[in-house]
Every structure is written in structure tokens, then in C-alpha cells.
Amino acid sequence: MSSPLPAAAPDLPDADARWAAVVARDPAADGCFVYAVRTTGVYCRPGCGARTPRRENVSFHATPAAAREAGFRPCLRCRPDDPPRSARHAEAVARACRLITAAEEPPALAALARVAGLSPFHFHRVFRELTGVTPKAYAEAVRTERLAAALPEAATVTEAAYAAGYGTAGRFYAAAEQRLGMAPGAARRGGAGIAIRYCVAACSLGSVLVAATERGLCAILLGDDPEALVHDLRVRFPKADLAEAEAGFAARVAEVVAFVEAPRLGLALPLDIGGTAFQQRVWAALRAIPPGRTATYAEIAGRIGQPAAVRAVARACAANAHAVAIPCHRVVREDGSRAGYRWGVARKAELLRREKPGPGDLE
């Protein structure tokens, strides 16, 4: 697995912006430049914790080598010649991810922290910041990927469970439905026998289809043509028992419509997400983006620990069956412009507009 990407470096074109980064001790500026202090003869990272020098004593240099050529020596506190902390953390997490992927049983937190060269507490915090999930959740996702791959070929569900690294069948069944989005036997049969009830209603964005299993909402689809939405549902769940919902389903539909109208308020209904382990990690990262904020595909790939998987992240966004609830509309291009949206770029723009904080809101 490739190393998770550190946060994108800011653009600091002038001395005033660089000085502001030094005063703020902004770690995001590390790697963009170094600053040197004439009175001490030392050069530092922008994020160095040393006392802020006087502005008139500071000069800026594009690289540590340039600062050395100017006669300065590296700070022993921030070690500006070493890779930035973000890069060191990214490599440490990548080593831990490789260990998790190669292990038959999920490694203990202490073992992962030793590989990363960090304390267990610090490693847990850094891992979650970079991947968007805890080490335990990442290990479970890897094991679920093995399970999903083993189920179609295994003679029994139990055989697939042991092949995926579950030490006992009891531990497997305790978590399997939450991970797979359906019972393991049904997953092995391609979802056959799952009952899905649905209803199409009108909303300000056109039509919305709401579908649910006994576990929760399995689809929220947006569009202009109700028949096209039903067809999309049948394509997504070709082996399920699909039928229009009865009158009692109306309350759930009304709650979804209200959520689409005001997405900042959130949705309290349970979701039956399903999907592959990779898709689940992407969707979890999307749900962690606060309303009113956006992220790029590359940032999402970095947060789940697979920075090279930008296109796979885009495909996971396109496979999302829970419009607004799993907010793929909050993903934008690198330049901040709105990327494609399977339910229409105009709807994406409107959803982002609705999520902007009002004058009295706190971000």
C-alpha cells in the first residue's frame, strides 16, 4: 500500500504570507520553505515550537540547502533537514497498514504502534487522522474484503469465515451483517431473498426514491423520472424481492424529503449501506465531511490510507446509493470546482448551497 498523503501544502507566494505561517507555527507550511534567524544563525521549519523571533531578524529560504548556503545551521529542535512530520506520520501509518493487510489475525494496537515507532495513544490518534478510521476498523475492513472474496467460492459460510481470518464462527456472525449489509448467507447468494420496499415522492429537487430493507434505508435516489428511479433500484438489487411500500412507509419518506430540503439538519433513520469494504471506507470518510465543507477526491483517498486510489474513490462515490445521506455531493475537484454528480451537477450545486451556514450559524 502506498503511503497516505499529507495535507496539501499551502501556496505562500510572498514574505507576508510566510511570516504569518511562522507566527501561527503552521505545520501545513512545513516543506514549503524554511526561515532563518540572523541573531542565532539557525534555520527552522515554519511550524517550529521555538520562541517567535523578531521580524527584522528573519529571512526566508526556499529549501534547507539554500539556508545552509547562506551560512545558517539547522535547528536541533525542529530538525528542518528531516522529512516533515506529516510525511513521517504518513509512512508510519502505511507500514502499519501493510502489516494489517499481511496478517492473518488483526495485530494488537501495541504491535502496530511499535512498527510505526509511536506510542499506542499517539499512533491511534495519527492513524485515525490520516485514514479516517481507527486501526481496529481498518483491520475489520481488510478482513471483510477477504470475506466478500471468499463467500462466492466457499463450500459453506463457515469455511469462508475461517479463510477470512475469523478465529471462531461466533465472532464472525456477531459482526457479519453490519459489515456486509445483509446476512452472510444472503451475501453468498448475491442478495437473493432480501425484501426491499420502496416509494417515490416529489421534492424540490425533482423526484426522490426511498427504499428500505428490514435493517434500514438501502437507497435514496434522486432524479426527474420516477420510472427511471425504479429501474435504477432494480439494477442495483437484481435478485431482491422488490415491491412498492404500504401506507405505513410514508413517515420514513417524509423524513427523507425533509432531510433533502434541509440537509444540515441530518437524518436520524438507520441506513443499510452494504457495499465492499473499500466502498464502506470511502463512504465513512464522506460522512465525516461536515455540512458546508467540501473535500477533493485526493483528500478522501489520503484519509482512507490509499492516496493512489483517487479513481477508485471516484467510482465509490458513483456507486453510492444514498444520495445526501452519504454526501458525495461534498466532493469537488482539485481546483475547487464541482465535479460530476450522478444525480446531476445542478442538484449538487443546490445541495451545497443549502448546506452553507447562515449568518447566525457557527461553523
From TrEMBL:
UniProt: Zn(2+) binding residues: 44, 48, 75, 78
Annotated catalysed reactions: a 4-O-methyl-thymidine in DNA + L-cysteinyl-[protein] = a thymidine in DNA + S-methyl-L-cysteinyl-[protein]; a 6-O-methyl-2'-deoxyguanosine in DNA + L-cysteinyl-[protein] = S-methyl-L-cysteinyl-[protein] + a 2'-deoxyguanosine in DNA
Ranges for domain HTH araC/xylS-type: 109-190
Keywords: Activator, DNA damage, DNA repair, Metal-binding, Methyltransferase, Transcription, Transcription regulation, Transferase, Zinc
CDD domains: ATase
Superkingdom, natural source: Bacteria
MF term (GO), any: sequence-specific DNA binding
Gene Ontology process terms (BP): DNA repair; methylation
Alphabetical list of Gene3D superfamilies matching this protein: DNA Methylphosphotriester Repair Domain, Homeodomain-like, Methylated DNA-protein cysteine methyltransferase domain, Winged helix-like DNA-binding domain superfamily/Winged helix DNA-binding domain
Broad class of enzyme this protein falls into: transferase
Protein name as it appears in the record: methylated-DNA--[protein]-cysteine S-methyltransferase
